[in-house]
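Notebook, p. 212. Picked up where the previous page left off. The plan for this session was modest: take the two constructs that came back from the sequencing core last week, fold each one, and keep the raw output in the notebook itself so nobody has to go hunting through shared drives later. Recording the first one now, exactly as returned: residue sequence, then the structure token string.
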Amino acid sequence: MHDPATGITARNLGPADLDDLHAIGSERSVVRQMGGWPWPPRRDFTATRCRPYAGDGFVWGLDRGGRIVGTVAVTRGELGYMLHPQVSGQGLGTRWVGLAVDHAFATLPLTRIDASAWADNAASAAVLRKLGFVHWQTRFEQAIARGFPVASHHYRLTRATHDRLRNADDCRKATA
């Protein structure tokens, strides 16, 4: 999938993406917000992520000009994403998370998508709320990169809410 507005193509990850993905995984500001990535960074761990996802859902590498600048995934009904700090703040998170959610509901037999954000990750929580996700639970969970439990806000978007919001957006665009 290519998005001309952002100049990004979503594609499967592969071994050739190791350097780019490891560069993202070596950014403390990114990894501290990820639930399952280690700190300090480990190249062998990153290598395990550099292959097409074969499970329930999808993982997209976000390719801009032949370089991976982030990832977005819906796996087993859960949403996850990360962006290199050099491209953060450009609206890419909202745009590509939205495209991934649309794709997931269009192609997977899901009734809902769940996501979470650490309590101190206001930017990620804002992306989720913009797309219609609703907070439903907060609990402490182990943050691997931080080395201690952190409050984690859990969000949920149902298919019915997604469809209602998409239909409202389509109507607004048609009358604009």
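Okay, moving on. Second construct, recorded in the same format:
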Amino acid sequence: MPTGRLRVAAWTSTLAVLLVVVCVVGAAMGTIDIPPRLVVASVLNALGVSTGVSVPYPYPFVVTTLRMPRVALGAVVGAGLASAGTVMQGFFRNPMADPAIIGVSSGAAAGAVIVIAAGVALPLGLPFAAFCGALIAAFGVYAIATENGRTPVATLLLAGVAVQTFLGAVVSFLLVRTDDHSLREAIIWLMGSLRNTMWNEVAIALPVVLVGIVILLAYARDLNVLLLSEEDAHALGIEVERTKRVLLAVSALVTAACVAFVGIIGFVGLVVPHVMRLLVGPDHRILLPTSALAGGVFLVAVDTATRLGATSLPVGVATAFVGAPFFLYLLRKREVHEL
């Protein structure tokens, strides 16, 4: 097996095992501590796999109905945001890029707050509004930046900043104008949370994120070439504009599917790709799958820690508390470079 494939196999298998471990620990710990072997038995029994282990009530209910959906969605969202962040940093050749840079997060926030302020009932409610808002903002940014079939990266970046600023103003205006109950609901959503997660949310987000990551992986080699220059990519036969459209569209869909259910969770798509790039290098064929797994590990671990703390912080606040100081540390160590 070539050395590159060995590295991929080693890192992905290690991170996959770590993800399983943090998921089991996350489902085991809480108000009622459950032995990890009973967590595994509960999950396998629920899947119809006979384990021969007798799991006393209420452990199966606590694991499969209350905790495991939250853990599973955390893993899915962490993987999706980290993958999209990896692609955005490579696409813009900028270590400060993250999924929010193309307006996805601000669009989701605007969609959610509009629905909350208006008290409108929609199919799937808040997630549907956030998902639509995210996609409208992302594709609006792309349309603004595209001229004569070309989308310059610098123009796309500036358009994203302008749209983010405008939608931030819309959200602020609506928060000022809304009543106290709606204001509290909107602020809780904007802080990002995995509370009250249900399996139907996992069932919707998982296929979108999984298919998105597979598509992004298929374009990993093209993204590697785009890191050099668009001229080099043209010379090697890559359809640059088509590749850019696919990368942007899939990253936007993945991010929208994530934030629609959990709200705004920052720094996962910014910090995790940096850490993995330091560990595995810049090759996106390795960086993308390892970042996805590491993102799942990070978000599940942070959410578990916040859930067990004396003050149960929203996970979006906790990731900012953890991510911002760590990113500053990387800056001070001069370990954040232009790509």
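Notes on construct two before I forget. The longest helix spans residues 59-92.
Flagging for discussion at group meeting.
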